[in-house]
Design brief:
alpha/beta, Rossmann fold, six-stranded mixed sheet, 7% strand
Length: 457
């Protein structure tokens, strides 16, 4: 218990709660006096000794159950035990209509099987859960695990299974009961995923002290940045841009002469008896022309804003940049970025978006570009896509993207999402990737800066 309390205190510190050594000692002394048998007394004991400010209470209340509660997600029900032989036969017949992965998940829901620890650990590894040390990412991480398990497709498969059972002659009341129980079991799995992600993140926090320094921020994933963190990184972008500008200018100066022009060299040296005293080189366009399409939906906004900030801070090293932003449709934002900083420009674009809940529709946004801005794209242009490739199951319009990619000199895709998640759920990334010249994962500011340096090489 003492070791767990120490880890809990470390997690509090990582969560921004200031806990001194003296306060930690006071907590241990109080627990020795009051014991740990009564949960409420134990919680109040820790809270009164470790928390000084009311603003820190939410962090305490969120972490405490992750370290000291033994309750688990509601246990699922084994539906298969209550089925008659005839119902078992009908369900087996209906399940044959599904693909293997969906069939296995439906069978799991019928049996009421929870996820094994090895399965949870594997899912956590695929989404990079070991790097998460901020509880604000708990829900997002759990949703990523749900995407890997294809929960949305499973929900649709449950309804399809019920229709098949009705066609096979099963009683409608019994069908509704089965659907309710299977959905309850799926909800139990969702609770299990949230408990697992919360516990893992809390454990990560207990092993890492709070890192408010700049090195920690520039390596922190975009989805885990707070508004305060973003304010700090906006200032850091200017320093990184200056470094990039110097590096790119030096690289262009060294490469300025381009390739040897044999014909021009021969002509220039006829007066020297064709002795190549004067070497001529081919002219070469060094500064690229960029077409940038940025996803500014909630999950992508930080990455896109910092990307635009870097690009527009090094405009003197770029021939021309045409910037676009999209959620459910495309907006031309170059004028906004010329007049405002990227943060204010993105805010202006969001005001022009129709009100309500946004569902990303990259396919329709590509159609917008094809209809209204296709002439901007030519064989001197580098097209840069900044997005996670998630399309909410809309038509990805691969035909349009293929045409745009063929028109461009290069097509580069920057994706902040972990590669194991590409192609799962509503992700069309694995369909877009073969049509690109380069695809790079850019989950933090360090990787984003390196990607821009690389694409301008």
């Amino acid at each position: 218990m003492e070791e767990r309390i120490i880890r809990f205190i470390s997690a509090l510190r990582a969560g921004g709660v200031r806990v001194s050594l003296a306060e930690s000692a006071d907590a241990m002394l109080a627990i020795n006096q009051l014991g740990v048998k009564d949960r409420d007394t134990f919680r109040h004991c820790l809270r009164s000794t470790l928390v000084k400010n009311a603003s820190d209470l939410p962090v305490f209340e969120e972490l405490f159950p992750l370290f000291f509660d033994t309750t688990t997600a509601s246990l699922p029900l084994n539906i298969s035990e209550d089925l008659t032989p005839e119902e078992v036969h009908l369900i087996a017949e209906a399940l044959r209509q599904f693909k293997r992965d969906l069939r296995e998940m439906l069978e799991r829901l019928l049996r009421g099987d929870q996820l094994q620890q090895t399965e949870l650990d594997q899912l956590g590894k695929m989404i990079g859960l070991s790097q998460a040390n901020d509880l604000r990412s708990k829900e997002w991480m759990a949703q990523k695990m749900e995407n890997l398990l294809k929960f949305r497709e499973v929900q649709e498969a449950i309804l399809e299974l019920m229709d098949l059972l009705a066609e096979l002659g099963m009683n409608r009341e019994r069908i509704n009961q089965l659907a309710h129980l299977m959905q309850a079991n799926q909800h139990s799995l969702q609770e299990q995923l949230r408990q697992y992600t919360g516990s893992r993140i809390a454990e990560n926090m207990s092993h890492s002290p709070p890192d408010k320094g700049l090195d920690g921020l520039i390596n922190r994933p975009f989805n885990m940045l707070s508004d305060e963190d973003l304010d700090i990184l906006r200032k850091e972008v200017q320093r990184l841009a200056s470094m990039l500008r110097t590096r790119i200018a030096l690289r262009q100066k060294r490469a300025k002469s381009g390739q040897l022009d044999a014909k021009a060299t021969i002509r220039a040296n006829l007066k020297h008896g064709s002795v190549p005293i004067e070497i001529k080189y081919k002219d070469r366009t060094l500064k690229p022309k960029l077409i940038v399409l940025c996803d500014i939906s909630t999950s992508m906004r930080s990455c896109s804003e910092l990307m635009l900030s870097l690009i527009y801070a090094i405009q003197d090293q770029i021939s021309k940049t045409s910037a676009f932003a999209f959620i459910d449709h495309l907006e031309y934002i170059s004028a906004d970025l010329t007049e405002k900083n990227p943060r204010d420009a993105v805010a202006c674009v969001l005001q022009r978006m129709p009100p309500g809940h946004y569902n990303t529709d990259l396919g329709y946004s590509l159609e917008n570009f094809n209809d209204h801005f296709i002439d901007m794209l030519d064989n001197r242009s580098t097209m840069i896509m900044v997005g996670d490739g998630r399309n909410n199951f809309n038509d990805p319009r691969l035909d349009i993207f293929r045409n745009l990619s063929q028109r461009a000199h290069k097509t580069i895709w920057l994706n902040p999402e972990s590669q194991p998640l590409w192609g799962h759920g509503d992700s069309d990334m694995l369909k877009y990737a073969p049509l690109c010249d380069t695809v790079m994962q850019v989950s933090n500011l360090v990787e984003l800066t390196a990607a821009i340096d690389r694409l301008l090489t």
